[in-house]
Amino acid sequence: MKSPGCPLCEGPGGAIVFQGDRFRVIRSAEAGLPAFYRLVWSAHVREFSDLAPADRHLCIDAVACVEEALRRHLDPVKLNLATLGNAVPHLHWHIVARFEWDSHFPGAPWAAAQRQVAPEAQARIEALLPPLEADIAARLAALPGNRTAT
Amino acid sequence: MKSPGCPLCEGPGGAIVFQGDRFRVIRSAEAGLPAFYRLVWSAHVREFSDLAPADRHLCIDAVACVEEALRRHLDPVKLNLATLGNAVPHLHWHIVARFEWDSHFPGAPWAAAQRQVAPEAQARIEALLPPLEADIAARLAALPGNRTAT
Asked: What is the ipTM of this complex?
């Protein structure tokens, strides 16, 4: 189920927060967007609708689980979810907590940056990431259906 | 369940393709991105994770249903799905069929445009939209759970 040359088949793609059988969650270091996570499906699947219905539900339940943890720990002004894959067509979901002061708000994370972020603001969020990520891992380990082998 | 001043509470937000009890699907006219649809949740809900689990599944099943119709009718190079809502925090999903020649590929629909689209390419896709949209409406009307009243 791996595709030669695919960066998400050949490496983790970021700092691993949770590694399961069917998917992993990684933290992506993005300047100005201090809480940018990705859920990467383990198998090399191109489109969300390529997943069987039960896997779609597992995948989106996991995305919602990460979203809930981000909301609880960081109190963001908005959550952004997206699966694009135009450059890397291996199913992954971007899960991004947004703040009014972040580099792109109210634009999308893929739009042009609108400002430089004050280091104190970025550091304030970064200090909250270790307990957030422990919570994400615990929630995903407890997610129904997550232990099923492929 | 309406929020005063919210454009997605006060108007359809685009050309209606499907209108159900819980959500509608609209076509958005975006120059250079000829197959740009949105699924708009009927109730004024801010975040995807604000939905009850059964509604999350209904919502994402409907998104996947639109995605499958787009793939079948248009043979896009990639599908892009996103719920952002930074400007309009009323739950809506962007469902965008992407083509190598579209205005933004391989960038996100919210990144800077990379090219002007040839009118013939845009027109070729636009000619396929009426049967596509009839199929989307039929698939969504048949989606399990979709008729349940709120």
From this structure: 0.96
